[in-house]
Amino acid sequence: MKLVAVSAGLSVPSSTRLLADRLTDAVRDDLADRGHTVEVDVIELRALAVAVANNLVTGFPPPQLATVIESVTGADGLVAVTPVFTASYSGLFKSFFDLIDPEALTGKPVLIAATGGTARHSLVLEHALRPLFTYLRAVVVPTAVYAASEDWGSGGDAYTQGLPARIRRAGGELATLLAARAADPGPEDDITSFEKQLSDLRVD
To answer: What is the pTM of this model?
Structure first.
């Protein structure tokens, strides 16, 4: 089973990369508890910025970028994490996914996440990232994870789960979808409807 994380962080070190690592660890740990082994590949878009720009202009990806695109489209599941710029995903993040064939992510389980300086930008997950991957026909897990600067090290309160709990919950949801895909039921099997699967993932 292969899990790919795409991180669009620009700084070094990057909180976006840190969040991507925490999320992939949560997915891997959950799947390990279910008896599955997972190969994780984290892609840093920062190192591919020039190649992405050249591809947009020429229409042809250089070999390194072509390999990365193949890794993303060939993965069993995807974790996509972007920093927030001007109340939306970064230009580098959007430019990269503009290079993905619109049909290539159809049915692929995706966990979306974002980082920012303030919690005021958390709705970027619902008004920008989720519509993007819905357009690409991916299966986006119910829980999206936003990490503001103040969230790191926070345990939450009586009304809001802390960042570690949200990471575990989202990772568990993606792990559930990946484990279901790994089972690969035949057409004669009794397959639960997608809506029922998602409702089972939700926590009351």
So the answer is: 0.86
Question: Look-up: residue for tokens 């897990």?
Answer: 141
Do residues 163 and 154 make contact, with C-beta atoms less than 8 angstroms apart? yes
Residue 65 · residue 45 · CB < 8 Å: no
- How many whole angstroms separate alpha carbon 80 and alpha carbon 3? 11
Q: What's CA 102's distance to the chain center, in Å?
A: 17
Reading the block at residue 17, the tokens are 């990369």
Which of 204, 8, 5 lies closest to 109, judged by CA? Answer: 5
Q: Which residue has the tokens 């008004």?
A: 127
- Helices assigned H by DSSP within the chain: 15-33, 49-58, 63-74, 91-98, 124, 130-135, 163-183, 194-201
Distance CA 164, CA 60 (A): 40
What is the distance between the alpha carbons of residues 193 and 96, in angstroms, rounded to a whole number?
32
Distance CA 189, CA 97 (A): 34
What structural domains does the chain harbor? 2-201 (3.40.50.360)
Q: What are the Cα distances from residue 49, in Å, to 10, 38, 198?
A: 10, 28, 35
pLDDT digits (tens, 9 = 90+) for 85-111: 988 999 999 999 999 999 999 999 999
Which residue(s) pair with 151 in the sheet? Answer: none
Confidence of residue 197 (pLDDT cuts 50, 70, 90): low
